[in-house]
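Translate sequence into structure tokens.
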Amino acid sequence: MRSVTDTSSTGKLWGVGLGPGDSELVTVKAARVIGAADVIAYHCARHGNSIARSVAAPYLRDGQVEERLMYPVTTEGTDHPGGYAGALQDFYADSAERLAAHLRAGRDVALLAEGDPLFFSSYMHMHKRLVDEFDAEIIPGVTSVSATSAAVGIPLVEGDETLTVVPGTLPATELTARFRAADAIAVLKLGRTFVRVRDALQAAGRADEAWYVERASTSVQRVLPLTEVNPQDVPYFSMVVVPGPRNNPHRQVVGSVSGEVVIVGLGPGADDLTTPAVQAELARATDLVGYKTYLARVTPRPGQRVHASDNRVEAERAEFALDLATRGARVAVVSSGDPGVFAMAAAVAEVAAEPRWHDVPIRVAPGVTAASAVAAAVGAPLGHDFAVISLSDRLKPWDVIADRIRHAVAADLVVAIYNPGSAARGWQVGALKDILLESASADRVLVLGRDVGGPEERLTTTTVGALDPEIVDMRTLLIVGSSATTAVRRRAGDLVYTPRHHSG
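Result follows.
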């Protein structure tokens, strides 16, 4: 690699990370390159001042050429025919050509970047336009995230906690979803987005855990709890940081003083079908309660207590979770699929309705239910009215189940069948087939989905007449089509659907 002072051929482009604002946080290498470069370039707003130049000022020398790359717009409007994006693209192209002229003349260019050159920095727009023609080297810098964390003075992430870094310019709904799912959070690009960020943190239940840091590492640094910040006083160079739950003092207080029970649905089997909201609830819980098979799908974080039990003790499990909550625990009761569909939400609600539990907060975090997952895997069989029926006769007589199936078929509804069989219930699927053949044609479309989203996924599209009860087990869901449900063979993949205009 050519030396910074070698001008025998084309010059070299240096992307120089300056750190968050304190000139003493500029690295030794960055200081050396700044002092040796022929050209010092930096971006600035239309007022002409540059924070980057002020940070680098102690390392500049006499005789250096300075290229001030002044943005044509920042937040104001523009009459450019391509709008704001078009104005910036033209600006980046013109700026790159100005730097290229120096490089072609053999002059080394140090392009200053606040923080790190490849972390939300203007440098990257020049790099992408120049790196194919010129030698370029990036000198990393201390990011604003590190400086802000240091200013707060609380460990940001520890152990297996994760850090989510987001720009405040994201839509409010996207911010809220990411805040709910995150352990630790860092939010950049505040200024005019502060209110949106604050409201999203409040919606996610994280506002009380957050700190606001303005101009981190500089002599005018300010650190405040988020809830104490005046939105009118927030500059662009500010951040919000939420330390992870292991060290966040507010999270520890909440977890030890005020308990609650949250019933969560993991979805049908695939990890990517567990919603971010459910993942956030699992991360926040002090205790995980559930059937041992479902809890095996959850990786507990250090310090979480796991309470596994058999699948047939739902009332006892609910009472146990409620009792933990009265002692200050934040309890996640874990179900597969959706907790409100043949799962633990109803069991917990039934027990929580007793007077002695009336002071325990109860929430439900929905999940993707098996019927939706199987339907999506084959197309759209639930595209019109449908019924959902469980074949389990543990909590209701078989006569009731059979009568409901007959009425659903008579109404020409699509029917999703849960809990079709188990080791102790091997006859119901055969009985279901007999009931269906009483009032539906043998060629009625039937979908069998087993372990959808899991490692043993199996999808079968068949007919009522061809149904083999022996291949159906407890992990299988059946979708019985209506008279309008259609299975289509296609070269690009088969589809099953029920048209929305079906009139029965």
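Note: Residues 1-7, 253-257 have pLDDT under 50 and may be disordered.
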